[in-house]
Amino acid sequence: MTLSPSLSLPKFHSSFLCCPLKSKPLATNFVQPKPSSYPRIRALELDQNTVVAISVGLVSVAVGIGIPVFYENQIDNAAKRENTQPCFPCSGSGAQKCRFCLGSGNVTVELGGGENEVSRCINCDGVGSLTCTTCQGSGIQPRYLDRREFKDDD
Q1: Residue 78 forms beta bridges with which residues?
Q2: Within its chain, how far is the Cα of 49 from the centroid?
Q3: pLDDT at residue number 82
Q4: Could you list the residue ranges that cross the membrane (predicted)?
Q5: Strand (E) positions, the chain?
Q6: Distance CA 102, CA 93 (A)
Q7: Mean pLDDT for each consecutive 10-residue tract of the chain (154 residues)?
Q8: Which residues lie across from 108 on neighbouring strands?
Q9: Which residues lie closer than 8 Å to 129 by C-beta, 6 or more apart?
Q10: pTM for the full model?
Q11: CA 97/CA 102 separation, integer angstroms
Q12: What is the pLDDT of residue 61?
């Protein structure tokens, strides 16, 4: 069986090697001389998807670091400014109207048969108002992080 010139055996070539691999002759006692230089690895060939993936990774790391740094700077700047915003729930008074007695100090209960019982409100002790739970009676709207209670569970 002879091969025609158009049909030849494929040559194997690696893109990582500088020169194509050569077939070795089969010899039992053949001593191969040491190569003068070893094959070198070529520079990485990056396709478009790899470049996009690396770019997205770098941007993600930058955003992941940048956003917390930005918020820390905003918190530090806000702490330097004096807070003068009046409390929204109590309108800056520091007290809220009792929601059970609606500020009267007395609670009216209908017993039936047209009878009503009036008693002192147990929520506000008959005062009609309570200390604002948002500003703790100061009348100044607390900042977001000031409103949170950080408790150590240990």
Answers
A1: none
A2: 26
A3: 83
A4: 51-71
A5: 95-97, 106-112, 115-120, 129-131
A6: 17
A7: 55 54 56 65 74 93 93 83 85 89 88 86 89 86 66 60
A8: 118
A9: 95, 96, 97, 98, 103
A10: 0.41
A11: 6
A12: 94
